[in-house]
Amino acid sequence: MNVFTKRNLKLFFRDRSAVFFSLMAILVIIVLYAAFLGDVWLPDSMQGLLDDSSLIDSWLVSGLLAVASVTTTMGAFGVMIDDRVKKIDRDFCASPFPKSRLTAGYLGSAFYIGTIMSVITFAAAELYIVLRGGDWLAPVPCLKMLLLIFLSTMANTSVVCFIVSFFQSQHAFSTASTIIGTAIGFLSGIYLPIGSLPSSVQTVIKLFPVSYSASLFRQILMRAPMKLSFEGVPAQYLNDFREYMGVTYRCGGHEISPLVCVLILMGTAIVFYALSVVNLSKKS
C-alpha cells in the first residue's frame, strides 16, 4: 500500500496544473478579501477596537486553512478519477490487492497532499500576519494548529473521497470541484460571517464538518488578538462577537464545546471512510 500511495503522490505533484487549481479557491478568497471585503463585515460594536487588523487577519487565515484541507484533497483525488477513466483501476482490481487497501491508498495519498498543502498555507499565513503587524503564534498553540490540521484533513479527505467515489468521468469531477470550490467559502463562513446569515442558513452551515474545522482554527488563532482587542470591554460584547464571526457555534441554546467539535470531526472521518470503502468496493 505504501508503494501505491507514493505512486499517487508523484502523479499529483508532477501535474503542476493540478496543484495550482487545487489552491484556486484559496487564491480567489484572498483576492476577494484584499479587493472587496476587508473589514466590511465587522459588526458595529467592533469598529475602532484595538488590533482590528490582526484579529480579522487571523479570522481570514482560519477560514483559509479549513478551505485548504478540502480543495487540496479534492484535487488529489483527480488521480483516482484519471485511473478510472484510463481503465488503470481494472489492473488493480484484477490483482490480489484488497479493495479496502486500494481505497486506503487513494485516501492516504490525498491525506498526505492535503496535510502538506495545509501546513504550507499555515506557514505562509503566519508570515502574512506578522508582516501585517501581528505576532508569531506561541509554541503550544502552534502545536495545536498542526494537530488540528491533521484531524481536519483526515475528516475532509474521507468526505471528499465518498463524494468522488460516485464520479466516473473527468467532466463530472471537474464540475463537482468547481461547485465545491465556490460553495466552500460560504460553508466556512469567509465570504459572510455566520452571524449575518438567516438562522435557517446557519443551521445548514452547521451540518458540514468544514464549519467545525474553521471554528476550531479560529479559537486557536484568534485567542490572543481577541484578548487584546476586547480588553476592558464587557464580556457580553466578546461573546456576541465570537458567535457572530463563527468562532463558536450554538445548538439548542448551548455553545458547542471544542471537544464536541473534535468528536464531530473524528466521527466524520470514521463514518465516511467506511462509506467510501463500501462504495468503491461495489464499483470494483
Word description of this protein:
This protein is mostly helical and 284 residues long. It has one domain (2-283). The chain has helices at residues 2-14, 16-22, 24-37, 52-76, 78-85, 88-94, 99-131, 139-164, 170-187, 199-205, 209-221, 223-229, 235-244, 258-283; strands spanning 250-251, 254-255. Helix 2 packs across helix 4 (52-76), helix 4 packs antiparallel against helix 9 and helix 4 (52-76) runs antiparallel to helix 11.
Question: What is the overall pLDDT average?
Answer: 81
User: Which outline best applies?
Assistant: elongated
Strand content: under 5%
Total domain units: 1
> How big is the Rg?
20 Å
The major β-sheet equals: 2 strands, antiparallel
Distance between the termini: 17 Å
Q: What is the spatial order of strands in the main beta sheet? A: 1-2
The count of helical stretches stands at 14
